[in-house]
Every structure is written in structure tokens, then in C-alpha cells.
Design a protein that fits this description.
about 375 residues, mainly alpha, Growth Hormone, Chain: A
């Protein structure tokens, strides 16, 4: 789990650099809010929407080599994107980085399920916290590098990703020991529930309308309020870091009281917290935004486990759909919010982020309870 979570940290470190780069890219290329949102859309589509395809590949053939390869592509792509001389080249390199992310997540999530044992939500939280902390560190490190060296300093963002990718290559023989043998794969693990899965994906997509709007425009909103780019990225980093720490609590609580109650509580709290951030600002607003991070990021592992329990026979596909397609569709909202901000103003556009969770509350109430299926036996493969 340490190896998998470290890889998750590094790949989402590259992801966290994307919104942090936006204020600097806006200044360099004189971008509108719509074009800034298009950067996030390119990242969302490439890193998320194609994940189910990698998940299907993982379920059918296995592809552990995607772990180091995906991580390396993610780091190299974001590093080159930071220093790219044109806006359209930035978009192309963001897509390369996103494809690396899409390759890593389904395979990494599947192996995390193998090694989690009976406490699936707790184990998945340990896997998720690596990614969440990486996503929080991305803006902090990116801002420091760009302020010190300019956008060309963003090339250094590839270094930690390449280092962890090399470590994963070395750890691959050990990770292979946890692949279930053919007999284990053939055991009855419960029936797939595609309708429940579709409803869960809709909940995640609706919730991520708010989430992608915030991670895209919070730094720009703080600049519009009169703060510096560095301050805006610190507020974003606080939200992401709080979410990463919240993951450690959400998993064990979900194992004790159930997945659905934890998810419902997080969706209920999102709208009021976002309004508090918009209306109050300052330390109180930043604290409310950090709590939004706990609500969303903290329950990533919970929703992933629910997906694997709804599709117990296709856990790679379930992971790809949860972290991929549903989140990617939420990313489409970034472009729509950018267009709305250009037409009206950014603050009013962000009110949509506060309103979107209302539909998620209704949909979460309709979710069936997810009873954990019998976990795959992670006995080492002998040959």
C-alpha cells in the first residue's frame, strides 16, 4: 500500500499543478476565463473520461506496467506544459499528462483493493490519501518554482514523478505477489448492480460540477478580490490539503457506520460551506473552503469502494468509472462556468458551485446500501 499510495501521490502532484499554473498562464497568454476553463477541460477529458478504457484493459488482461509508465507520462507532460511557448501547445501537453494519470488510476485502485483485506474503505483511504496529499502539494511546489524561476521552472515538476516511477519499477515484482490466482478470480463475489452504479456516477458528476469550478477558479477569484497569485494558490492548497487529511477519517468512519451516510453528510454540507466562502472571505471563508475539501476529497475513497461493491466482478472498470468518467464529466462544467464568468462576473458564476450539490442530496438518498462483497483473497501467485 505504501508503494501504491506513493505513486498516487506523485501522479496527483502533477494533477495539482494544473490549476496552480492557470493564473500564470492567464497572465502569459492573456487568456479569457473561457480559455482558462478549456485548459481544465482538456485535463479532465484526458485524465478522467478515458479511464474506464484503461480499467477494462486492466480487468481483462492486467497491466501492472501502466503504474510506472502512467506516472512518468504525467510528470513529463505537466513539466513541458509549464514551459510551452504557446497556448495550444500547453493544451496538447496537458492531454499527454492527463493520459498518464488515466493509465495509473484504475490499475493502482485495483491493486489497492487486493491488499486492503476486510477493511476495504480504510484501505482505500490509505491509497487515496497519497493522491490527495499530492494534489495539495502540487499548487504549493508549482507556485514556489514559478515565482523563483519563471514558468520554465515548471520543468522541475517532472522530477518527483520520474523518481517514484523508477521506484515502482523496482517494486513491481513484489506487487505481483498480490495478484489473485485464477481460482480466486473465478469465485462468486456477488452480482454486479449497474443501475446502482449509474446512480452513484451521477452523484459524483453532480458533486464535481462544484468541485471543478472551485479548483479552476478559486485562484483566479482571489486575484479578482485583490490578492496575489501566490495567495490564491495557498487558499487552493489549503482546501486540497484539508481534503487529504479528511480522507484518513472518512474511510474508517465509513467502515463503521456505512458508506452512504458518510457520502450524504458530505453532500449536505457542501452548499452552505461554499456560500460562506463567497460571502465572508478572509480566514473564515478559507476555513469553509478547506471544509469543502474534506467533504469532497475526503470521500473519494468511500465512493470508490461503493463503486467496487456495486460492480464486484469488474473492480478495474468500477475504479475507472468512479475516478474517471464521472469526474471528467464534472470537469466540463469548468468551461461553462468560465463562459458564464465572461458574460456576467466570476463571483456570480461561482454561485452555481454552491447550488449544484442540492441535486446530489436527492440522488444520494436514492442510492441503495452497499454491502461489501467477499474480498478477493490476496494469496501470492506461485509458479
Amino acid at each position: 500500500m505504501a508503494a501504491l499510495s506513493s505513486g498516487h501521490l506523485a501522479t496527483d502532484f502533477a494533477n495539482g499543478a494544473v490549476p496552480a499554473l492557470l493564473p500564470f498562464l492567464v497572465a502569459r497568454f492573456d487568456l479569457s476565463y473561457t480559455l482558462a476553463g478549456l485548459v481544465m477541460l482538456a485535463w479532465a477529458v484526458s485524465s478522467s473520461v478515458v479511464q474506464p478504457a484503461f480499467g477494462l484493459w486492466s480487468d481483462r488482461r492486467g497491466a501492472i506496467w501502466l503504474l510506472p509508465l502512467g506516472l512518468a507520462l504525467g510528470g513529463v507532460g505537466i513539466g513541458l506544459a509549464a514551459a510551452a511557448p504557446s497556448y495550444w501547445l500547453v493544451l496538447a501537453l496537458i492531454v499527454v499528462s492527463g493520459l498518464g494519470t488515466a493509465a495509473y488510476h484504475p490499475e493502482g485502485s485495483k491493486f489497492a483493493a487486493y491488499v486492503s483485506g476486510e477493511r476495504r474503505a480504510s484501505g482505500m483511504s490509505l491509497f487515496s490519501v497519497g493522491g490527495n496529499l499530492g494534489y495539495a502539494l502540487g499548487p504549493i511546489v508549482t507556485t514556489a518554482l514559478v515565482l523563483r524561476f519563471g514558468l520554465e521552472g515548471g520543468l522541475l515538476l517532472a522530477v518527483p514523478c520520474l523518481a517514484v516511477a523508477a521506484a515502482l519499477v523496482a517494486a513491481t515484482p513484489y506487487l505481483k505477489r498480490f495478484v489473485p490466482d485464477r481460482a480466486s478470480r473465478g469465485r462468486a463475489l456477488g452480482e454486479d448492480r449497474p443501475r446502482a452504479m449509474a446512480l452513484l456516477l451521477t452523484v459524483i458528476a453532480v458533486r464535481n460540477v462544484s468541485w471543478f469550478g472551485l479548483i479552476t477558479f478559486v485562484p483566479l477569484f482571489e486575484v479578482a478580490r485583490g490578492h496575489s497569485e501566490a495567495y490564491g494558490n495557498r487558499v487552493l492548497a489549503a482546501m486540497l490539503l484539508a481534503g487529504g487529511l479528511g480522507t484518513l477519517a472518512a474511510g474508517p468512519i465509513a467502515d463503521r457506520v456505512g458508506r452512504r451516510p458518510v457520502l450524504m453528510a458530505s453532500v449536505l454540507a457542501m452548499g452552505p460551506l461554499i456560500l460562506l466562502y463567497l460571502f465572508v472571505g478572509g480566514l473564515a471563508g478559507a476555513t469553509a473552503l478547506a471544509a469543502v475539501g474534506v467533504c469532497v476529497i475526503g470521500t473519494f475513497g468511500v465512493t470508490m469502494v461503493m463503486a467496487q461493491e456495486y460492480l464486484p466482478r469488474h473492480i478495474g472498470m468500477a475504479s475507472g468509472l468512479t475516478t474517471g468518467l464521472a469526474i471528467g464529466l464534472g470537469g466540463v462544467a469548468a468551461v461553462g462556468l468560465g463562459a458564464l464568468a465572461d458574460a456576467i462576473d466570476l463571483e456570480r458564476a461561482l454561485y452555481v458551485c454552491a447550488a449544484a450539490p442540492a441535486l446530489g442530496i436527492v440522488l444520494t438518498a436514492l442510492l441503495p446500501s452497499s454491502r461489501a462483497p467477499r474480498v478477493l483473497d490476496p494469496e501470492p501467485v506461485t509458479s
